[in-house]
Q: What sequence folds into this?
C-alpha cells in the first residue's frame, strides 16, 4: 500500500492498494470515499463513491463505470445512485471535488523517499491500476545508472584538473566548474523531459548523458596519453 497525504489533517487522502485507487475527499460538509479499479487518461473506471455526512452516516452510494476527473467538477457517466435502499439511474451527474487528474498525479510524484522494494510494489500497483509507469521506470533507471554517473563525473573532473593544472587562478576554476555543472544538469533535464513525455525512448533519455560523458572521457584520456 502506498499512501500520499494532501493535507496534514487527513481531510484529503489518496492511497494506491491492490484493490485500486482510494481517495478520501471532504467537501461541502460531506466526506467522499472513492474507489476506482483503473485509470484511463483523464478517466477513472469502475468507480464507487460512498458519501457520508460529518457524523459518518451514509448519505448515498454512487457507482459509475467512467468518471471524467480532468477538472475539479467530476462528470459521472451512467451512474447508479443508492439512497436509503432506493436505487436510481441517471445519464450523467457532476460531483465537486478537491482533486483533479493533475493533483492526483502530483500526489504520487515524490518517489525519492521510497525504498527499492516500495518502488517495485508501487510499480506493480500502478500496472494493475493501468496507471502510467513512466515516472517510476525513470526513477528506477536513474537509481541503476547513478553509480556509473558518479564514476564518469569523477573521471571527467580528474581530466579537467590534469588539463588546467595549477596555472589558472581559483576564480577561473570555480567559474568553469559552475558552468560545466549547469550544462550537465540541463542536458540531463532536457533529455529526461523528452523521455517522460515519450518523445524519445525512456531508457535512452537516462543513459544518453552517460554515453556522452563516456565518449568525452575516452577521447580526453587518449589526448592526455598522446601528450
A:
Amino acid at each position: 500500500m502506498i499512501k500520499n497525504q494532501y493535507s496534514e489533517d487527513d481531510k484529503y487522502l489518496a492511497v494506491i492498494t491492490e484493490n485500486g485507487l482510494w481517495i478520501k475527499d471532504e467537501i461541502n460538509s460531506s466526506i467522499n470515499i472513492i474507489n476506482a479499479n483503473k485509470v484511463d487518461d483523464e478517466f477513472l473506471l469502475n468507480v464507487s463513491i460512498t458519501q457520508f455526512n460529518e457524523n459518518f452516516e451514509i448519505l448515498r452510494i454512487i457507482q459509475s463505470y467512467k468518471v471524467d476527473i480532468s477538472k475539479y467538477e467530476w462528470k459521472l457517466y451512467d451512474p447508479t445512485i443508492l439512497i436509503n435502499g432506493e436505487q436510481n439511474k441517471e445519464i450523467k451527474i457532476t460531483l465537486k471535488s478537491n482533486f483533479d487528474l493533475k493533483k492526483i498525479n502530483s500526489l504520487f510524484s515524490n518517489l525519492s523517499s521510497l525504498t527499492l522494494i516500495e518502488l517495485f510494489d508501487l510499480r506493480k500497483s500502478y500496472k494493475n491500476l493501468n496507471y502510467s509507469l513512466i515516472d517510476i521506470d525513470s526513477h528506477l533507471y536513474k537509481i541503476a545508472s547513478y553509480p556509473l554517473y558518479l564514476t564518469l563525473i569523477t573521471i571527467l573532473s580528474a581530466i579537467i584538473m590534469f588539463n588546467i593544472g595549477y596555472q589558472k587562478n581559483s576564480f577561473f576554476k570555480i567559474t568553469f566548474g559552475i558552468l560545466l555543472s549547469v550544462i550537465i544538469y540541463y542536458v540531463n533535464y532536457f533529455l529526461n523531459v523528452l523521455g517522460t513525455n515519450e518523445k524519445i525512448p525512456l531508457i535512452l533519455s537516462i543513459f544518453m548523458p552517460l554515453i556522452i560523458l563516456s565518449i568525452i572521457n575516452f577521447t580526453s584520456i587518449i589526448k592526455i596519453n598522446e601528450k
